[in-house]
Design a protein that fits this description.
The chain has 298 residues and is an alpha+beta fold. It contains twelve helices and four strands, in the order ααααααααβαββαβαα.
């Protein structure tokens, strides 16, 4: 997929946030969340090798390995991240001189480190880039050993975190695991970019009233699904409707008011395109007052 200016901007922002998190929260407290950056903390402690230099050399070796094993196509999106991240780490190395967090509890430091690192990683991965490092080893394990990507990632990062426990002790390793968990959750949320919508699945004995309530009352289009009852074996109808968070409670309560026996399942929506375009193009300009009239007819 061809990258645009916005993709590269998000890459740079993600690398900058990740570098800030590394120098402010992770490195000073020996919090190893896996990856080449985690190894750089361990090697600095053992051999006093500059962390950004270690990252650059390790990433260089891994990129060459990736070219040989995975090919150019699989490697090209790791190039920028692999070589820019050590530069950002070096550039922000003295961030602790500007921001002092020495009075914070280690749990708070780990929590904040996980959040900022997760946001940074999410911004990088969201736009099809990678910061290289152990991601390359994970992809090699997947290709050569036919290992599922999740297990390969867990194996690689797990070994690094366990190694940190040997070097820095069990308490620090536990805090490192907290960082790793929060990082993964926040990174996933950043990549998926959960929006402010909920999807309603509604099975009702009053389909006409519910349909009118959603379309005329709140300007929501809906999809009618043909279903078969698992127990009754009867052919039935189910509505699917995407509802904004601001209308979530009112719509849910409105459906329950119209049909107290309605079966409703509500799920999160991570992305949607062109929702309710048709209904709005047909000038359904009613507002919440219309919904109130449907619920409280005179």
């Amino acid at each position: 997929m061809k990258k645009n200016f916005k993709d590269y901007l998000y890459l740079l922002l993600g690398l900058f946030i990740s570098a800030i998190s590394f120098n402010l929260f992770l490195s000073p407290y020996n919090l190893v969340s896996g990856g080449v950056s985690g190894l750089s903390i361990i090697f600095y402690h053992l051999f006093h090798i500059n962390e950004s230099v270690f990252m650059f050399l390790a990433n260089l070796a891994l990129v060459i390995l990736s070219f040989i094993v995975l090919g150019i196509k699989a490697t090209k999106n790791t190039l920028l991240g692999s070589f820019l991240y050590p530069i950002f780490v070096s550039f922000t190395a003295h961030i602790t001189n500007l921001i002092n967090i020495s009075n914070l509890d280690l749990f708070v430091v780990a929590f904040l480190g996980g959040i900022f690192s997760g946001i940074g990683s999410g911004l990088i991965f969201k736009n099809g880039f990678s910061s290289g490092g152990t991601d390359i080893i994970t992809l090699i394990l997947e290709k050569k050993l036919k290992m599922p990507i999740g297990k390969a990632l867990l194996l690689v990062e797990g070994i690094i975190v366990l190694f940190s426990g040997v070097v820095f002790g069990l308490p620090v390793m536990i805090y490192s695991l907290i960082v790793l968990y929060i990082l993964s959750v926040v990174s996933d949320r950043t990549i998926l970019e959960q929006n402010q919508n909920r999807v309603f699945y509604i099975r009702t004995n009053k389909p006409k009233e519910i349909k009118e309530f959603l379309i005329k009352g709140y300007n929501y289009d809906l999809t009618i699904l043909n279903i078969i009852g698992g127990y009754s074996k009867k052919n039935e109808k189910m509505f699917m409707c995407s509802v904004s968070l601001k209308d979530y409670y009112a719509v849910k309560e409105g459906i329950k008011f119209i049909d107290k026996d309605a079966f409703i399942t509500i799920t999160n929506s991570f992305e949607q395109k062109n929702a309710n375009v048709l209904i709005r193009s047909e000038n359904y300009h009613s507002n919440n007052e219309s919904a109130k009239k449907l619920l409280n007819p005179e």
